[in-house]
Specification:
SH3 type barrels, mainly beta, 7 strands, 40% strand, seven-stranded mixed sheet, 101 residues, 1 helix
Length: 101
């Protein structure tokens, strides 16, 4: 696996591109949680709908720099948010990205 250094803006763009182009493909993301300040690494996927219970969120994730995904380790309550402001690393499509700056 190759390691590439990218900026935070590039990391966020890679997540958006991955969400729209490779919905079923798993990826890994590391970021700092807003609630506790601890680092969190998730193995996740976009586009998982099987465990949805209906309803809507009381906020728009994009307005809070969040992106929803499905954490593969927490089935069936695995829907989580990625803090797009504090991403430190990504692994997707055979490439490991380290976020600097």
């Amino acid at each position: 696996m190759s390691i590439v250094t990218i900026t935070l803006a590039e990391a966020v763009q890679k997540l958006y591109d991955h969400r729209h182009g490779n919905t079923g493909h798993a990826f890994s993301v590391t970021f700092i949680k807003r609630t506790s300040g601890e680092a969190r690494t998730m193995n996740a996927r976009f586009g998982v709908r099987v465990h949805l219970k209906g309803g809507t969120l009381p906020y728009l994730p994009k307005e809070h720099n969040l992106m929803g995904c499905f954490d593969l380790k927490l089935t069936p309550e695995g829907y989580r948010m990625i803090n797009l402001e504090t991403i430190t690393g990504l692994k997707m499509e055979g490439v490991e990205y380290v976020v600097k700056g």
